[in-house]
Design brief:
By secondary structure, the chain is mainly beta. It has one domain. The protein contains no helices and 11 strands. The strands form 2 sheets. It has a 7-stranded mixed sheet, with no helix packed on it. Strands 3, 4, 5 and 6 form a 4-stranded antiparallel sheet that branches.
Length: about 150
């Protein structure tokens, strides 16, 4: 059975790493997306969103934008040590989104090895567990995984 954001399982919850960064699908057919801000004046897209456009510096021009479903791998590193509560090895990366921003993200869905990824490969957004908190709740966040067949 698939659990949704905030659902309890065995007395535990799925908790976002930070509110307002992403949308976790709540119903069949919905897709995850990142919550960004796009300038109505110059078109600049910023993630995470900011209240003032960093390009044209015009207040009141930023509006919420749903982005990040697809991207390309810019660069990555295999990290062989981790902070307490995190798994290692892991893959940390920069992903160039179709909408323009380049963002930091963990990569999931592949073994953490140099041969598993190629710079420029197509990636897709997923929302998944990053770690457990001190109460055993799942801390979830946005991550990217290779698009099958790319």
């Amino acid at each position: 059975m698939e659990t949704k954001l905030g659902d309890k399982f065995e007395g535990k919850k799925r908790v976002p790493v930070e509110e307002g960064l992403f949308h976790q699908p709540q119903a069949t057919g919905e897709e995850p997306y990142l919550i960004a801000a796009k300038c109505k004046k110059c078109g600049f897209t910023d993630f995470p969103g900011t209240p003032v456009c960093p390009r044209c510096v015009e207040p009141g021009t930023m509006e919420e934008a749903h982005i990040g479903k697809k991207g390309k791998l810019e660069t990555f590193s295999i990290v062989r040590s981790a902070l307490p509560g995190f798994t290692s090895p892991s893959i940390q990366s920069y992903v160039k989104l179709e909408e323009g921003p380049v963002i930091w993200s963990l990569i999931t869905g592949v073994e953490p090895s140099e041969d598993a990824l190629k710079i420029g490969m197509d990636l897709e957004l997923v929302i998944s567990k990053v770690r457990d908190d001190e109460d055993g709740n799942e801390i979830i966040s946005y991550q990217y995984q290779p698009v099958k067949g790319s």
